[in-house]
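Bug #77: duplicate submission created two jobs. Keeping one. Sequence:
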Amino acid sequence: MSTDIIIAIDAGGTAVKVVAYDLNGVQVATRAADVQTTHLGDGRVERDFGQFWAGTVVALRTIVADCADHRIIAVACTGFGNGLFLLDEDGHGTRGGIVSVDHRAAPLVDRLGQTGEGAQISDITGSRLWGGQSLMLFGHLAMQEPHVMARTRWILACKDAIRFMLTGEALTDPTDASGGGLMDQQRGGYANSALDLLGLAEHAHRLPAIVPSDAIAGHITARAAAETGLPEGVPVAGSMMDVAACALGTGAYGADVFTMIAGTWSINSIEVDTPPTGTAHPILNMIYGPAGHRLVAEGSPCSAANLSWFLDTALGGRVDLETANALVAQSPVVGTRCQFLPYVFGPAPKQGGFLDISAADNLGTMLRAIYEGVAFQARRHAQDTVALAGRAHPPVIRLAGGAAKSPVWCQIFADVCQRPVEAVDAQEVGALGAAICAAVAAGAYGDLHQAVSHMTRVAHRYVPDPSLADLYDQRFARFTALDAHLLALAEQRPATERGI
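Kept job's structure:
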C-alpha cells in the first residue's frame, strides 16, 4: 500500500537538499546536490541560476525514483532568505543570483544612514537595513545595473525562483517578503513608500504577488514534470524562508521557546504576538503565524560554518566531524584555553581568529573554543533579540542546524546560555518546516498548529550545568571585550566612540 508523501526542497548556502516526508513528519528519503557559490570579492557572493536549477533537477529526479512506491501529494520549497534572483519571463537568470551573505549594498546602507532616509525606511518595514537585504540589493542593482533591470521580469527570493521553475507562477510568501525588508509592516502589502524613497517605483511590477505560506502557490507544470519526474498537477505550497521554516520545523509555532539556528548563519528568533515597537529594529521582522504575530530575529554569518572551514580548509580534511566532536568532549571544560571569534565569513570588517592562545592549547582546546565562540555569538544575538522583541527570554531553546546534530555542541549551548536545549527529531529542520506548510496546503491538516503537533517532536533535551554558569559568564565577557576592541581596531577608532 502506497504512503502519501510530501517532497520538500531546501536550498541552503552550500547545497540543495530534497527530502521526502510522510504526513507524520518522518523522513522517507533524502538527496542532496552541491551547488557552486562564487565569492567574487568586495562582499559579492553569487550563484549561477542555471547551474543551481540543474542541480535541483538532478536531486529531484533521484528522490522521485527513490519514492516510486509512494504517492506525492504536495511539494514545497524553502531557501535562504534575502539575497535576490533576477529572472526573465522564461526563468533564465538575467545576472548571477545573489546569495544572502553578499554585502555589496553596504555602501547604499551607509549613505541612507547618513541622510536619515535609512531610519525612515526601517520605520516602514520594521527591519534594520543591511548590505545583503533584498530591499537594499534591489535598490543597489537598480542604480548600478539598469541594463540588467531592464531585461528582468521577476525579482525573486531563492525559494520562489525554484517554485517559479516548477509552476511557472511568480509568487512569494509573507516571510520572504517581510523578512527581505519589502513589506509595509503596519499596512500590509509591499512597502511602496519605501520603494519611492529608493527610486524603485518604476520597478515595483517586477515583484511577485504575496500568498499565504500554507496556501497553494501553483502546480507542477508539464514542463517541470518532464524535467524532474514530479507528477504533473501536484500542488506546490507558498512555504517560508528558511529561518521561519526552521522555527516551524522545530515546533516553535505558538510555543514559548527560543529558536537558534546554528548553520551557515547564526539566526536566533522569537515569536511575538504584537509587532516590536521602538526606534531600534531587528535584522529580521517577519510576518509569522496568526494576525499580528511576528518572528523577530537577530543573526550574522558567524555560526557552524566556521567549524566546516576549520576542518576542511585549515586542517585540510585530516580531521572529520566525528573526531572533532570526540576531541571537544575530551577537552576539559574547566581550565585555561584560547578564544575564537567566529567571523571567518564576516560580516566585514570583522574577521575570524584565535586569540589568547598559549602553549597549553592544543587541537582539542582550539576546537572547543570554536564550539564555544559560535555559542557565545548565539547568546549575544539572543540577548539582542529579546530586547528588540520587548519580552522576556523564553525558558527553553530549540536548536537547529549543524550544531544540533552534535551532542557535545548542544551541551555547550545549554551551558553557555544556562537554559535547557532541545534538539528536534529531524535531520533537516528547514525542509520539515516547508513540508508542514505543504501538508496544510494539500488539505492533510486543517492549519499549521495541527500540522506542527503531528509532524514535529523533540529527540533530545540537554540540561545546563549550573556549576559552569560563572565560568561561561567570564568567558563570554572576555569574548565580547575582544570582539569590541578588535572591531574598533579594524575601524581605526576607539571602542568608546562606538558606544561599546
